[in-house]
Description:
The chain is mainly α. The chain has a domain at 82-197.
Amino acid sequence: xxxxxxxxxxxxxxxxxxxxxxxxxxxxxxxxxxxxxxxxxxxxxxxxxxxxxxxxxxxxxxxxxxxxxxxxxxxxxxxxxxxxxxxxxxxxxxxxxxxxxxxxxxxxxxxxxxxxxxxxxxxxxxxxxxxxxxxxxxxxxxxxxxxxxxxxxxxxxxxxxxxxxxxxxxxxxxxxxxxxxxxxxxxxxxxxxxxxxx
Length: 198
């Protein structure tokens, strides 16, 4: 009986490693594809429109961007990885809006299923939460793009003023979710879940 238990653990680890390899392969291909698609308009403007500001401007711009963002590029990847996992990292850096949309949705999904950070359960919940946020984001963005001017023209002024409070509300929701992860009630629920699983 003990041999079966010890043999079951490596197979789970092997399955997780195989899954992570597939995620890295698909994620890397997707990110490189997005990089190429992002560069295509620049190449088009240079080749077909003759628009090129010169290497001095390009190098100065790249240097300024690297100096301004390099710390953030490293910090975001390290900071958010424990919360969102391997597939969540690819989703975050592909879809954007990490702090305002992806991480709150990830934390909400993990809280909904009482998942502990770093576990496969938390990673799966995180993926479902973030993919849902991406789908809803595209749907809402499509509505705004196609009907935005019309919607703004028929909205009352009080609703338009309310848009000023969207960012504080999002950050407040994120703060409450993060504080909720460390509340005593949450710890009791996790202990009860562990006891029930044992």
